[in-house]
Amino acid sequence: MRSKARLTITLDKDLLRQVDQMIDHASIRNRSHAIESILRESLSPTVSTAVILAGGKASTDPHPALLPIDDKQLIFVTLEHLTDYGIRRIFLLTGSDQPSFQEVLGDNHVFGAKVTFVQEETPLGTAGAVKAIEDQLNHEPFLVIHADVLTNINLADFIVFHKQEKTLATIAVKPRDAEKKYGKVMLQGNKITEFSEKEKSEGISIINTGVYILQPDVLNLIKAGIPAQFEIDVFPKLAAIHELSAFLFQGIWFDISDTESYLGARNRWLPS
Fold this sequence. Notes:
Elements: H1 13-21, H2 31-43, E1 49-54, E2 68-69, E3 72-73, H3 74-84, E4 89-94, H4 98-105, E5 109-110, E6 113-119, H5 125-131, E7 142-146, E8 149-151, H6 155-165, E9 169-177, E10 184-188, E11 191-196, E12 204-214, H7 230-240, E13 244-248, E14 253-255, H8 259-268
Parallel strand pairs: 1-4, 1-7, 4-6, 9-13
Antiparallel strand pairs: 2-3, 5-6, 7-12, 8-14, 9-12, 10-11
Helix pairs in contact: 5-7
């Protein structure tokens, strides 16, 4: 749940009329949401593109992103969160679940953002799938988020941090009881010096949350058409040359890819 503070303001009537014209009860729900959107877009540094990773192996079960969180499916929670921070170009990379995503989302414009569906014919892994759309990313920094992640991470702070770090990539990380299924990082200051995938499961670790900001040059490390994973084939290389930063945050985060985590997420997540 995103915490908010109540604020009373006085606006010129003509200005208020312009605010009211923004309200469409879909992407902009009310006056407060309209004013918040204006402030976010004016104050936040610009990253206008996001890639949602929703591919993976074929399964008869619904994709985790299509499961309900409170009164809406996770994919809607994620899209609304991205657009709240001014992201207006979103690529949804899918596998065999693409028809289900298209049925749920309907129109390609959701919460004021253009959503482009990209279906993999052959699984290419997290990095290989992004490499395949390289030409559509406009050679600009972009955000990557795994579709089965539920989080209230402050993306404005994340983007500012990435720009200050001036590294090729920044990973959002957080402390968590160690589990083998999560990649772990070793830190020196804000730099990740070592990136390891799914090893020990003891104590407290700093884990990879599956939310990244990447400079376009990161894609030069990936061969087109060859399966590759960010966590295995890219991030360790960036760590070795001191081009991988860690953004530590304390907000809500769940990987809902398994039943236990999904139920925990539903119990803790409340509408804003």
